[in-house]
Design goal:
- It is a single chain.
- This protein has 92 residues and is an alpha+beta fold.
- It has a single domain, classed as Glutaredoxin, CATH 3.40.30.
- The chain is 22% helix and 32% strand.
- The chain is built from 2 helices and 6 strands, in the order βββαβββα.
- The strands form 2 sheets. Strands 4-1-5-6 form a 4-stranded mixed β-sheet, with helices on one face.
- A hairpin with a 2-residue loop joins β2 and β3.
- α1 crosses α2.
- The termini are close together.
- Belongs to the UPF0728 family.
- It comes from Branchiostoma floridae (Florida lancelet).
- It holds the Pfam family UPF0728.
């Protein structure tokens, strides 16, 4: 995969503090890791709850539960961010 691939992060809303909303705080680390590797990142909201999907070249290359991602941060210590980056790097 070229270093400057376009990665679409599709994410759903999740419950926190008794409310269900779209929140991007748990995506900060994932975005940071992908951008540091030279990828262009686009965020898209979807109707599904508790889900994150990474799309490269129209293919879903990685999916996880959004609540399992670390809140905030740079993503370097989050094992799910490392898995997602590996999936993007091996996509074709």
């Amino acid at each position: 995969m070229p270093a400057n691939a376009k990665v679409t992060i599709r994410y759903g809303k999740y419950e926190a503090c008794g409310t269900v909303e779209y929140r991007e705080d748990r995506l900060d680390g994932l975005q940071a890791v992908l951008k540091a590797d030279g990828h262009e990142v686009e965020l898209k909201q979807i109707e599904d709850w508790n889900v994150v999907e990474l799309i490269v070249n129209g293919e879903t290359v990685y999916t996880c539960n959004i609540t399992e991602l670390d809140f905030g941060g740079d993503g370097k210590l989050d094992p799910l961010c490392a898995e997602a980056l590996q999936a993007v790097q091996t996509a074709y």
